[in-house]
Amino acid sequence: MTDNNFNQPLGGNQMPRFGGPGTMFRLPSSDISNDLDIGILGVPLDIGASNRSGTRFGPRSVRNESVLVRPYGMYTKAAPFDSFQIADIGDAPINTFNLADSIRIIEEHYDTVMASNIKPVTVGGDHTISLPILRALHKKHGMMALVHVDAHADINDSMFGEKECHGTIFRRAIEEGLVDPKKMIQIGQRATGYSAGDFQWAVDRGVRVVQAEECWLKSLAPLMEEVREIIGGDTPTYLTFDIDGIDPAFAPGTGTPEPAGLTSPQALEIIRGMWGTNLIGADLVEVSPPYDTSGNTSLLAANLIFEMLCSFPGCIRR
Amino acid sequence: MTDNNFNQPLGGNQMPRFGGPGTMFRLPSSDISNDLDIGILGVPLDIGASNRSGTRFGPRSVRNESVLVRPYGMYTKAAPFDSFQIADIGDAPINTFNLADSIRIIEEHYDTVMASNIKPVTVGGDHTISLPILRALHKKHGMMALVHVDAHADINDSMFGEKECHGTIFRRAIEEGLVDPKKMIQIGQRATGYSAGDFQWAVDRGVRVVQAEECWLKSLAPLMEEVREIIGGDTPTYLTFDIDGIDPAFAPGTGTPEPAGLTSPQALEIIRGMWGTNLIGADLVEVSPPYDTSGNTSLLAANLIFEMLCSFPGCIRR
Amino acid sequence: MTDNNFNQPLGGNQMPRFGGPGTMFRLPSSDISNDLDIGILGVPLDIGASNRSGTRFGPRSVRNESVLVRPYGMYTKAAPFDSFQIADIGDAPINTFNLADSIRIIEEHYDTVMASNIKPVTVGGDHTISLPILRALHKKHGMMALVHVDAHADINDSMFGEKECHGTIFRRAIEEGLVDPKKMIQIGQRATGYSAGDFQWAVDRGVRVVQAEECWLKSLAPLMEEVREIIGGDTPTYLTFDIDGIDPAFAPGTGTPEPAGLTSPQALEIIRGMWGTNLIGADLVEVSPPYDTSGNTSLLAANLIFEMLCSFPGCIRR
Amino acid sequence: MTDNNFNQPLGGNQMPRFGGPGTMFRLPSSDISNDLDIGILGVPLDIGASNRSGTRFGPRSVRNESVLVRPYGMYTKAAPFDSFQIADIGDAPINTFNLADSIRIIEEHYDTVMASNIKPVTVGGDHTISLPILRALHKKHGMMALVHVDAHADINDSMFGEKECHGTIFRRAIEEGLVDPKKMIQIGQRATGYSAGDFQWAVDRGVRVVQAEECWLKSLAPLMEEVREIIGGDTPTYLTFDIDGIDPAFAPGTGTPEPAGLTSPQALEIIRGMWGTNLIGADLVEVSPPYDTSGNTSLLAANLIFEMLCSFPGCIRR
Amino acid sequence: MTDNNFNQPLGGNQMPRFGGPGTMFRLPSSDISNDLDIGILGVPLDIGASNRSGTRFGPRSVRNESVLVRPYGMYTKAAPFDSFQIADIGDAPINTFNLADSIRIIEEHYDTVMASNIKPVTVGGDHTISLPILRALHKKHGMMALVHVDAHADINDSMFGEKECHGTIFRRAIEEGLVDPKKMIQIGQRATGYSAGDFQWAVDRGVRVVQAEECWLKSLAPLMEEVREIIGGDTPTYLTFDIDGIDPAFAPGTGTPEPAGLTSPQALEIIRGMWGTNLIGADLVEVSPPYDTSGNTSLLAANLIFEMLCSFPGCIRR
Amino acid sequence: MTDNNFNQPLGGNQMPRFGGPGTMFRLPSSDISNDLDIGILGVPLDIGASNRSGTRFGPRSVRNESVLVRPYGMYTKAAPFDSFQIADIGDAPINTFNLADSIRIIEEHYDTVMASNIKPVTVGGDHTISLPILRALHKKHGMMALVHVDAHADINDSMFGEKECHGTIFRRAIEEGLVDPKKMIQIGQRATGYSAGDFQWAVDRGVRVVQAEECWLKSLAPLMEEVREIIGGDTPTYLTFDIDGIDPAFAPGTGTPEPAGLTSPQALEIIRGMWGTNLIGADLVEVSPPYDTSGNTSLLAANLIFEMLCSFPGCIRR
C-alpha cells in the first residue's frame, strides 16, 4: 500500500495488537540518525510537577496504548508513514533525582536530535521538558511561533523559589527569546489562579490567550484559521500540547486536571488545524498513567501524536 | 400502574436495588417461549476481538448495573413494560475455545428464538455475534435494513486470515444478502484505518456512512429523520450498537476505543430516532467490564437497551 | 495580594499541594463562630442512598482534592477569599446507624451554624442532608427560593415506606413550606422513572423543571437569566447541587448515575449564573469516592464549591 | 456423576463460566420451600457498618465470582451437591433506610426459612445481620454453640448510642440467651480497641477467645479439635465468618480491615474443622466489593461458602 | 562487573527504570539466532482460557514491570547475565481468532527457536501455550521431565468438547509421550474439581501430585530435594509455572484464582530448587494484567523469570 | 478511661470514622511545642525515588486510613495515649522541585522539632527523608543505634551520579557517623542487586544484615531479642521502617516492591520487639497511594505507626 521504503507500523494482521515491540505505533526503533525525517521520543521526567506525579510513566504507557493506531487518518486521509521516514528513537536519559540536571541532559539530547535534522515529536513527562526542547530547537530555527494547548498558562515567574519547573516554562521561553509572543497562541486556560491577573503577563507581551470558556460548544476550526494567519505559513512553529488542556472527562489521567476544558473533537481540530503551518516539532505532555485507570488517556495521547504526524508539512493526503 | 399482566421489573421499593435476581432490569427469567414479545439475552463471546478482551463479562455486568433502570422513560414517556411481554431469556452457550463453533452455536440459538417469534435484544459480547444473529433473523425476515453505530466500519475482508471476526462481519452480511446496503446506515466511524479507503467498500455498495466528524456538536435528530426516510417504515430493521461508537469519555469500558466519538445524548437521539421504523431486533455489544472501573459503561449500556425497548413498534407513550 | 485579614488558603508555594492540612482548600479550620461569613462543612452521611453507597467519604475526599484549587477565578475574576471570612468548620457528627436520628442531628448542627450567622456551604453525603439543612435555614430565612441541579427530582412521596431519604426530600421541603415551589427550578432531570408522571407533582405546584434534554448542546446562560428573573434578587435563595446532575463522563464517582446529563461547562454556567441572586447557602452532594477511581469527581466538586463561594452576594470581581 | 436428583451447579462445559444465571454456584434459584435441605441466601445490608460501606453489594458480587467453584472438594473429597438438595433462595428484602426495621425484616424472613426446615447459609451484608438470623434460629434450636471468626469481638454494649449494629451483636446474642457463651469460640481478634479490656466481657462469660497472635504461623487443626470438644457433636452449632478475620492480604475487600490476621489456609482449616459438629447454619459477612479491586475477596468468600456446605452433617466424602 | 561480552540489562544508573526499551529486563532485543544461549519470548494468547481473559497482555505487562529486576540474585548469588548470552526475542505471532491455528503457529515458532539451539524462557499467555512448546522441544530432547506448578492439574480430557485448551494440555502431553509421567511433579493443586477424582488420572500414570494442603506452612526445600531425585540430574527437564499456583494474595492478577495456594517464598524455593536439574526450558503463564491493579503480579512474574534464568545449568554463583 | 489530660484520638462514638479532622488518628493538630512528648509528622517527598513515584501522597493517605485505629493495643495492652502527650504536628514544607534543597529543609525542620524535645514519628515520603532526620537527631543524641526494615539495603554509593537519594542514605548515615554500624540491624533485604556483593559494604562495617530468606516461616521474636542485646537498653535508637520490607501481598502500595518479603505479623513482631530499647524516634516510609488500590497499605502503615508509639520507653501496658 505504501509507495516507498519508509518504516511502517507493524500491522495488526502480522502480529496481534497486544504483542510485538513496545515502540510507538510498533514502529522500528532507531538510533538518532540522519536517515529520519521525524523521530518520536520519550522524556520520562515527572519531578517538575507540582501536584500528582506519575508522568514518568507517560512514554511507556502511551507507547503501550499506541498499538491500536493504524496508519491512515480516516477523515483527513493523511498518510504520514507514506510521507516521512519515522522511527521511535527511544528516551532521553534524565536524572530523576535532579531537575536542573535533567533540564541540562534534555537540552543536550535534543541538540543531538537537531544535529541529525530530525523533527522531534516528544511524549512526556511533565511540561518542564518543553523548555530544554525549545532551547535546543532555537539554536537551529531561531525564534519560533508557538501553539500551546493547556489548562494552565505556565507563566509563573517561579514556583517554590524555583525558576524552572512545569509552571514557569513559557515565561522563560519568552524571556529567553525562544518563542515570539506575538506568534504565540495559548488555548484552553481556565479554572483558578494565584491572582486574577495570572494570564496578563502573556497578554501584555502579545500572546493570544484563548480561555476555555471561549471554546465551549464551538468548533475550533475558525480559531485555527486565525492561528494560521497570526503565525504565517513560513515561521518555524512548535506545538506543545498538555493533555490537561482537554477536559478530565476525556483525559482523566493527568496530574493537575481542571474542569470544563476542551473536548477531544476540539483537540483534533486544533492539531489538524496546524496543517498549513511550518511545523518543526511537537510534544504531548502530562499524561499520568497511575491516574488513567482505563488506559484511555494514553490511547487518546497516542492518537493525538498520530494527528501531529499528519500535520507536518509534506504529509500526503490520499 | 400497568394495565395488563406483562412482566414488570422488580421495583426498588420491593427489594433494594443492590439485591434481587441477577437478570436484566430484574425482570423474570424465562425459557425461550411463544409467550414473549421481546426476549433479552446475552452472548458472552469475546474471542472475536482484536485488541483488549473482556467483553465475555458484558452480559453479566450490564445485567448487574441494569438494576438502576426504572420502567418509564421520563422524556419520551415510553412504557415498554406496559406494551410488551418481556423477559430475560438467559445466555447463548458459546464455545469459548472455538470462534467458528461459537458462531454456529449462536446462529442455532437464534433460530430457536426466532421459532418462538421473539424479537431479540442482545447484549454482547464482541461484535462478531451480530453476524450469526443476522443470519438467523434473515431466515424469517429476508433482507433487512441495518442501522449500525460504531467507531469502526467492520467491513474488512479478513483479519489475520480469518473471514469471520469482529472486524469483518458487515462485509459478510452484505455479501450474504442479509442486509440491504442501500438501507444500511453506519454512524460514528472515525480515527485511523488500514488504508485511507477503508470505508469505501461500503459506500460503493450504497451504504450511508456518517463519520463521527459529521456528528460533532450537532443534534442527530435530523440525521435520524433521514435514516427513517432511507429505510421506510415497513422494512424489517435491525439496530446494532457497538458501545465504542460513543466517545470513551462516556463509555470507557470497551476493547477498541477511539477518540472523538458520539456523545451519550447523541446515542439516545439515535436509538429514540428508531421509533417509527419496523424494528425487529437489536444488539448492544463490546462492553468490556475489566476496563470499566466505575461500572458506568455497563450502566449506560443498560439504559441504551431500555431505550431500544422503547423504540419497538407498538411501544406505548404515556 | 489580599487587602484584608481574611483567611487565605495555604498556598502552593508555602507547602506543596500534596502536603498541609486536610481542610477544604487548605483553609484554617475553625469552630462555629460569629467571626465567619461563610463556613464550609461536611456531612458524611450515606445511609439515605438507595443504590451505591460511599458518599460518607465525600467530605474527606473533596477536601483532599481541593488542594489544587487556587484563590482566584480566572474567567470570572472573582476573589472570594478577599471578600469573605471563610473557614472549614468540620463535620456534622451524624449517627451512621440511624437515618432519622442523623436527620435530627444535622438540623440541630445547622441551627448552631445559623445562630452564628454563618452562611453554610456543605459537602455531602447523600442528598438526604439537604432536608434538615433547609429546615434549619428556614427558621432564619423563611420560605426560600431553590435552585436544584440533579438527575432526579427527589420528590417521591416515600421510598420503601420511608418518608425521609435521598429520593423524597424536595417533596417534604415543599410540603413543609421550606421552599417556594414557584421560585424553585430543577435542572438536569432525565432517564427513567417509576411512572411517566414522576416529575408532574412538582410541575403542578409551579416548579420549573428543566429536563436534561432541554439542555443538550446549549449554553445555560439564558436559562440562568430566566432563573434569576423567576427568583428575583432579594429572595433568600439556596442552591443544592447533586453531582449526578452532571453526566457520568464528567462525574463518574456517584451513587445513582444517569446517562446524558449536563456537561461540566454547563455546571459552571449554572453556579456562575447564581451571581445576582441572594444566595444564602449551598450544598454539593452525592460524590461517592469508591466509584471515583481517578479522584476527578472530587476535584470537580471542589471546583464547584469554589464557584459557589464566588456567587455569594458581595463577592469581589477583580 | 451424581447418584440422585439433587440440584447441580451449571457446569463449565454446558455454559462458559462467564455466562449463565447470576445465582450462587449457578445453582437453580428456588422459593423458600420444604424441598430444600440447605438454602443459600443473601442479605444486602450495609447500614450497620461503622467505617467503609459497600457490603450491600456482597451477595451480588460473591454470586458473580462463585462461577469458578466446582462441585467437589479436591482435598476433603466432600460432595455437597451429591449429599443435599441445595438452591439459591434469593435475598432478604431489607429496608436500606432503616437499620432497626431491617433487623425486623431479616428475622421474619428467617422465620420463614426455618418454617421450611431449610438450613440457611447466608452471604452478607455487614455483620449486623447475624443477630436477627440467630434470633430466628433460636426459636427452633434453642441456645446454640457459636464459632465466630472475626478481627473484632463485636461485643460493644453500644455504638454511637445504638444497641444493634455490626459491633454489638454478640453481646446481644449472649444477653438474649441465643448462644451459650461456654460453647462460643471467637477466633482472629486483633489490633486495637476502645479499651485494653474490650475482649474481657466475653471471656468473663466463658467464651474462648483466640486472638490472631495465637494463630500466627500455626496450623489451626489442633484448635479446631479443641473447638469440637468444647462444643460436642450434638449441640446445634452456628458458624459466623466475618471475612475480616482473614488478613487483608488475602481478603482486601472489606470495611474494617485489621493487619496481621488469619491466612486463607487457616480459614479453610477452621471451616473444614467444623465437620463433626452439628452445624445448623452459617454466614459469611463483610465482603465489600468496592474495595475488592480484583474480585478475589468475593471469590475467596464463594470458596468459603462451598467449604461450609461440605461441613454440614451428612455431607458425603468420596 | 561482567567478565565477558554477554548482553546486560540496561542499568538503572544509565536510564531511569521508567524509561528505556520495552524488552524483558531492558535487555537488547534480538532475532532468533544461534548466538543466544537463552531467549526470552512472549506468547500473547488468551483464547484458551475458560474464565477471566486478559493474559494476552501478560508478555507486555511482565516486560513493563521487569525494569525493577537487577542482574544479581542477592541470596543465591546467581549471575545469569555473566553466564549466558540472553536476549528478548519478541513474541510469537498467534492468531487470536483461532485457537487451533495458534497452537500450530506456536509450535512452528518454537521449532525455529529450537533450530537455533536457544533455550526458551516463555511468558504467557494462558497455559494452552505449553502444549505446542513441549511438542517443539520434544523433537529435540525426546521425552522430558516436567515440573508443573499450578492450582489446577490441567488434565481434563476435554473442555466444552475441545481437546486442546488451558485445562487439558498435560493429559495431551502425557498421551503424546512428550513428558514422562514418572518424572512429572505437579505442585500446588487445590480447591474444587469436576469430580473428586480429578487428579487421579495423573497419579495413576505415576505423576507425583503435591496438593497445596501438603505445602501449607512448610519450606519446600525438602520437596525440591525429592523432585531432583525423582528426575535425576541428566534428564532434560522443563519447568512450567502457572502463576495461579501461588496464592491470590501474592498474585491477584490471574484468570482462575483459587484460595489457599503457595506463598511467594515457596515459589522461589521451587524455582531455586530446579538448580541441579538439566533445565532445558521454562515458562511462566496466566498473568492477567486487567486483574492486577497494582502491577505487582507482573512484577512477581518478572522476578520468577529471573530466578528461572538462575537455575539453568551453568549459571555462575558469585 | 484515661487518667490524665493527654490528647486523645477523636472516638468513633463521637464522630463516625469517615468524618472528623484529617489528622493522624484524628488527634488534635499542634504546632511544634515543648508541651509534646511525641509528634507525628509527615514529609511528603517523593523525588528521591527511583522507580514508581507517588509517596508524596503517603502522609495524607496514611492519615486518612488511620481513622480506624483505636487507642489500645489488644494484644500488648499498650496505652500510648495514656502515656504520652502526642499530637499531629503537620508536614515539613519540602521543595518538590529540588531534592537537595528538600533535604536541607527537612533537616532544619527537624532541628526545630528536636529543639522542642519532641520525639518524632514520621510518615513519608520516600526513604531519602531518613537521612536529614538522622542528621537532626544526631545533633542531640550523638551516634545512634538503627533498626532498619527494608527490602533494600539503601547503601549504594551513588545513583545516577547523585550521592543523596532513596538508595544511598544509609551509606551516608554510616559515613557521617550518624549511626553506629555495630548497633545497626537491617531486616528484610532480598531479591536482586547491582552486584552480588551489594550488602557486603554494610556487613564489613559490622551491620547485622538479616535477609528475608532468614525470616521465612519464622517468628521474629528471637531475632528481636538478639537485636535488643546488640543495641543495649540505653543507646538512643532509631527505627526506620520502609513498608517495602513487607511482602507486596500485605503492602502492595509502594514504589519498589520486591517479592517474598516479611509478613505483617513479622512486622508487628519487629516493632513490638523494639519495646525495651531506648527508642528516640521512628519513621514509616515509601507508602505510595496510587498503587494502593484498596487503601490497605496505608491502613497497615497507620497500624505500624500506632505500634511504634507503643514501643517508646514509658508506654504503659494495662
From TrEMBL, chains A, B, C, D, E, F:
An example Gene Ontology molecular-function term: agmatinase activity
UniProt biased composition (Polar residues): 1-11
UniProt keywords, alphabetically: Hydrolase, Manganese, Metal-binding
Top-level EC class as recorded in UniProt: hydrolase
Enzyme Commission designation: 3.5.3.11
Alphabetized CDD domains for the sequence: Agmatinase_PAH
Positions contributing to Mn(2+) binding: H127, D150, H152, D154, D242, D244
Origin: domain of life: Bacteria
Iron listed as a keyword: no
Example GO BP: putrescine biosynthetic process from arginine, via agmatine
SUPFAM superfamilies: Arginase/deacetylase
Residue ranges, annotated region (Disordered): 1-24
Cofactor binding note from Swiss-Prot or TrEMBL: Binds 2 manganese ions per subunit.
Reported cofactor(s): Mn(2+)
NCBIfam families noted in UniProt: agmatinase
Similarity-based family: Belongs to the arginase family. Agmatinase subfamily.
Name recorded for this polypeptide: Agmatinase
The organism of origin for this protein: Colwellia psychrerythraea
